[in-house]
Amino acid sequence: MQIRLNQVSADYQLGPVHSPRVLQDVSLQIAPGTFTAVVGPTGAGKSSLLKVLNGLLLPKSGWAEVGDIKIDSKTSKKALKAVRKHIGMVFQFPESQLFAETVEQDISFGPLNFGASPEAAHDLAIKMIRQVGLDESILQQSPFSLSGGQKRRVAIAGVLAQEPEVIALDEPTAGLDPSGKAELMSLFKQWNKCKRLTVILVTHDMETAARYADDAVVMDQGKVVYHGSVRSLFADSEKLNRWQLDVPEARRFQLAFETYSGIRLPNVCLTEEELAEALIGVGRV
Amino acid sequence: MNEQIIQVKDLTFKYEPAKNNTLSSVSFAVNKGEWLSVIGNNGAGKSTLALLLIGLLKPQSGSVFVCGMPLNEETKWTIRRHAGIVFQNPDNQFIGATVQDDVAFGMENLNMPVEDMRQRVTEALELVGMLEHREADPSRLSGGQKQRVAIAGVLALHPDLLILDEAFVMLDPRSRRELLATLKQLRAEQGLTILSITHDMNEAAASDRILVLKNGSVANSGLPADIFSEEMDVEAPFSERLRRLLMSKERRTPESYLTESEWIQWLCK
After folding, report:
1. Angle at A123 between CA A119 and CA A124, to 5 degrees
2. What tens digit of pLDDT does each residue of B169-201 get?
3. Global pTM?
């Protein structure tokens, strides 16, 4: 499903008070089946960008297009419902959106709301709870009896149960331990590869962006300042510096090593695996 | 001997009588001015420990001393004047209509002259780099900005002990480093003690000592370099992950944990 933003500007309005423009003249095209990381400093407009895609924040000017549905300042609620069926949103701390008496009810809520039969919703719930790495027996428990990491997975299972074509994730692994984080990210990557799910990931964690995403969108003060491959972004130290982005650890190690030793490694290394291979390649380890 | 600001003895806690212990017989102490990282997987009992330290939960057995006082119903209010806590999700801890009201809230209970309060609010917002947003509505801030305001709210109380429960997870790495540098400075100038529950191994590597929790018990405690070399199943900072990866490939590696610059020097030997 094609996603386009054309000269979108937006702000938040509270009564007569407008916030400064959170999005300024943003044009962006995200191809189906891609895995895109949206990065940039806090307050750059990353979360707001996701809200536009889901119709939670309507453009003040310009328009967005999700598949063949157009979203602009006058889009009706009914059209927005159709958009939300295609785009699954995982907000920051999604566990705070759990509400039902049992995990199963929580996961089935979306599918039932979008017209699935109770049997289909039940089967989906079983499938999804396994997908996120939890045991089926958890379905009959109250979501509030679970640990933080488990709650997060249940909330994500609920979004995946709507079988969206696009999933928009806002810091989905904040607060998870490193192994929980790797498991969840691998799950998204797998869905992206096998099911051609389009993944849009807002993160400030450059390690996650470097390891899992193919493309990067850099936002700075409400504007898109870069859209291209993750590797060429991280190869360009000058750009990273300008946009206050961190260099992934493997790349930072590589640069420090190259400066100190005078030896240049053949590739831009984004993960420890790539760095290890490169160091083996130049005969240092 | 160093003055101990936290003493925990045989602390045991479970949420429901029928369930297993969330914490079993946990004992440790934290010196004044120390920066202790508490690490462990989700479900290891880290957040439960934080809630017990501040008296938001009651242990089944064991004792907690904070600033020399035994923690109980009578002392918990006094203790909370000395110890501040910041949680992971800042949305759960906002009260004020503006950023500065929110930061001032904690002080309103302390019978403080308004002028002093104003000054402390300004100072605290300056420390976290949020002074220019003082009039903003907290609910409209980004996740990282909210987290900084929540930290300012606690710093304004001038605590002796700061407990951070994954309080930096929404910050971008640069703000995270800046804030850590600020806290380090407060520690040097005012003897602030920091107990930080974290999954950020770079942060843990930079602290004085690491306490490893596993399944509700203290599995290890020591200098970061020792912990990363000894606890091979604990997630490690980048330089150690590289060492472990090369070890698994049966390559030449340093014998124990090295910092990044030590590693690079080792590579060039």
Report:
1. 115
2. 888 888 888 899 999 999 999 999 999 999 999
3. 0.83
